[in-house]
Amino acid sequence: MKTLRLILGDQLNIKHSWFKETNNDVVYCLFEMRQETDYVKHHIQKVIGFFAAMRQFSLDIESNGHNVIYLKINDEKNTQSLTDNLSKVIEEHRIENFEYIYPDEYRLDEQLKAFSNNLNITSKAVSAEHFYTKRDDLKQFFKGKKQYLMENFYRDMRKKHDILMVSDQPEGGKWNFDKSNRNKWKGDVSIPNYKLFKNNVDTIVSDIENAGIKTIGRFTTKTFSYPISRAQAIEQLKYFCEHLLIHFGDYQDAMHTEETYLFHSRLSFAMNLKLISPKDVVKTVMNYYRKHGDNIHISQVEGFVRQIIGWREYMRGMYWAFMPEYKDLNTLDNHNKLPDFFWTGNTKMNCLKHAINNSLDNGYAHHIQRLMITGNYALLTQTNPDEVDHWYLGIYVDAIEWVQLTNTRGMSQFADGGKIATKPYVSSGSYVNKMSNYCKNCHYNKSKKTEDDACPFNSLYWNFLDEKRDQLSNNFRMGMMYNLLDKMDKQDLQNIKEKAQHIIAHQDEY
Ligand SMILES: Cc1cc2nc3c(=O)[nH]c(=O)nc-3n(C[C@H](O)[C@H](O)[C@H](O)COP(=O)(O)OP(=O)(O)OC[C@H]3O[C@@H](n4cnc5c(N)ncnc54)[C@H](O)[C@@H]3O)c2cc1C
Ligand code: SF4
User: Fold this and answer.
1) Fewest CB within 10 A of the end CB: N or C in the chain?
2) For residue 48, what are the CA distances in angstroms to 145, 194, 218, 405?
3) Keyword annotations for this protein (predicted)?
4) 339: cis peptide before it, omega within 30°?
C-alpha cells in the first residue's frame, strides 16, 4: 500500500522508528509554508533555523535511502497550506494510506485530525517518540488535585525514571538545590567561549526575502549558530557537559551585560525540533557526571535535570491538560499594549535594553531574562497576555506554542490564576540588582521610587500590587508584600501610583 508520511518542521527525529528501515512504498513529505511562517511574525533567525534544519533533515533521510518530497517556500507546486499540499501529493502520487506524527501544537493537531477524518484513504497518527511523558500523563497524575505543583510531578519523574536516586531517596539527600542556584556572576569565574555553529544559510535568506515573509529581529552574523542536525546537537551537548555543566546550577539565575549565554546550554532549539531527545540529553549529562563527579557538584546536575524532566515535560503536560481554554485566560484582567521598544531595544532601562537586544540579535534570552526582565515588566505594566504571547512566540528560535504559552501566559504573566506559578513573578529593581550588573550603569536609580530618575520597576511594582489587590491579597505567598503595602504612607502610595501610571501611559519615553 503506497503510504505518505508527513514530517512537520518540529519533528526532525532521525531516531524515530519510521526511519529504521527503507521501504519503496513509503514516501515522506516536508513543506516550508506561509501557513507556518505567517501565523505570528517570527524572528528572522527562527524562520532561517527551521528551514535550515528541515532541508538538512530531508538530505539526511534521503541519503539513508528514503523517498522524500520536499517543497521549498518558493516552489511552484507549493500551495502554502498544509492540507492543500497534502491533498495534492496524495492525488498526484496515488497515495493509499496517510500517516503523521501527533503534532505538539493544538492548532496543527486539530487541522490534521479534521483532514484525516475527511480522507477517503486510511490514515493514522503515531507518537513523536521524543518526550518522557505522553500528552495526558500529567493530567492523570494530578487527577482530583487542586494544585498542579511542578515539584510533585518532578519528584515522581525522578523516581519513575530512576534519575539521581539512591533506592527511593534523592541522591545528595535533597530533591532540589535551588538555594545554591542563585548566585550573581561577578566575573570571577571565567565563562568558556560559546559553542556557535557557522551554518551557511545564504540561499535560505534569499528564499525568505524573495517570498516576502515578514519577520522581526536581526541577523547580522550571516551564519546560523544553533544546531541544525542531530550531529550538531550532539556536539553542542558534549560542549555543554565538558565546559558549562560545572557551573550551570550556580549561575542559572544570573544576568550580565557582557554575557549572552553564561553557562546555559543553548539546546532548546535542537530539542524542540527533536533533533535530539530529552532522554539523550539527560543520559549524556548523567554519564558525564558519573565519570567526573569529583569535579562537578550534584547541585549543577540536579539543576539541569530539573529543567528537562521537570519543567519541560510539565509545561507540555499542562498545555495538553488545559488547551484550548488556556490560550484565552486573562485572570488579572490586563489590557495594555507592549511598548514599541520591545521590537527595537530602544529604552533607557538597562535591564530591558539588554534582555531585548539579546532577543533581537540572537533569537535567544536565557530563562531569567525572559521571566524577570521582559516578563516581569510586561506584567507590572499590566499588558494584555495576548500581546505578550505573540511577542514571545515570535521572538525566540525555540518558541513553539506548547512550551511558549504555558511559560508566558502561565508562569510569567499569571494569567491562568495560578495553575502553574504559585504567585506572580514580579519584582522591583532590587531583585534585578541582586542578580545582575544591569543597575550599575543604568540611567535610572534602583533605590528611588518617584523621582525623575527613579527605577520604573519600583513604582510599577507597588502600583501593580495595589491594583491587583482583589485577585492577589489572599495568596498566602503574597502576604508579606501586602503587609508592607498596607503600612505605606497613603500620600507616598499616591505619588508612587501617579508615577507608575505616567510610565504605563508613556512607556516608550522611558
Ligand atoms: C516567559 C518565558 C517564555 C519561554 N518560552 C520558551 C519557549 O518558547 N521555548 C522554550 O523551549 N523554552 C521557553 N522558556 C523556557 C526557557 O527560558 C528556555 O527553555 C531556555 O531559556 C532555553 O535556553 P537554553 O537551551 O540555553 O536553556 P538551559 O538554561 O540550558 O536549560 C536547559 C533546557 O531545559 C529546558 N527548560 C528550561 N526551563 C524550561 C522551562 N521553563 N520550560 C520548558 N523547558 C525548559 C529547555 O529545553 C532548555 O534547553 C520560556 C521561559 C519563560 C520564562
Ligand atoms: S535601575 Fe531599574 S531599570 Fe535600571 S537596570 Fe536596574 S532594574 Fe532595570
Assistant:
1) N
2) 42, 20, 12, 22
3) Lyase
4) no
Ligand 1 lined by 334 (C-beta under 6 Å): no
Phi/psi at 329 (5° precision): -70, 140
pLDDT of residue 488 exceeding 90:
yes
CA-429 nearest atom, ligand 2: 7
Domain edge (last residue) among 126, 161, 193: 126
Nearest CA, atom 2, ligand 2 = 455
**Does residue 111 share a domain with residue 194?**
no
Residue 447 alpha carbon to ligand 2 centre in Å:
9
Residue whose CB lies within 8 A of the most ligand 2 atoms, among 457, 462, 503, 507, for a mutation test: 457
Statement to judge: residues 349 and 475 lie in one domain: yes
Q: Is the pLDDT of residue 468 over 80?
A: yes
In angstroms, the Cα distances linking 168 to 171, 271, 289, 503 are: 9, 29, 20, 52
CATH number of domain containing 415:
1.10.579.10
CA distance 268 to 44: 17
Query: From CA 210, how far away is CA 326, in angstroms rounded?
Result: 36
The per-residue pLDDT for 181 is 75
The total number of structural domains in the chain stands at: 3
Q: What is the pLDDT of residues 253-311, one digit of tens each?
A: 999 999 999 999 999 999 999 999 999 999 999 999 999 988 999 999 999 999 999 99
- Any residues with CB less than 8 A from the CB of 414 and at least 6 apart, and which? 331, 332, 379, 421, 423, 424, 425
Give the pLDDT confidence of 301-315 residue by residue, as tens digits.
999 999 999 999 999
Mean pLDDT taken over the chain: 96
Which residues lie with the beta carbon below 6 Å from any ligand 2 atom?
349-351, 429, 432-433, 438-439, 442, 444, 446, 455-457
Please check whether residue 329 lies inside any domain of the structure.
no
Would you state the cell numbers that stand for residue 508, as one nine-digit string? 516608550
pTM here is 0.97
How far is 238 from 300, CA to CA, in rounded Å?
16
Q: If you average pLDDT over residues 20-39, what whole number do you get?
A: 97
pLDDT at 179: 76
324 in a domain, yes or no? Answer: no
Cα separation, 146 vs 248, whole angstroms: 33
Is 210 in the same domain as 103?
A: no
pLDDT-derived band at 60 (thresholds 50, 70, 90) equals: very high
Domain coverage including residue 424: 340-509
CA distance 73 to 205: 11
| Distance of CA 373 from the midpoint of ligand 2 (Å) | 9
Tell whether the model's pLDDT for residue 322 goes beyond 80: yes
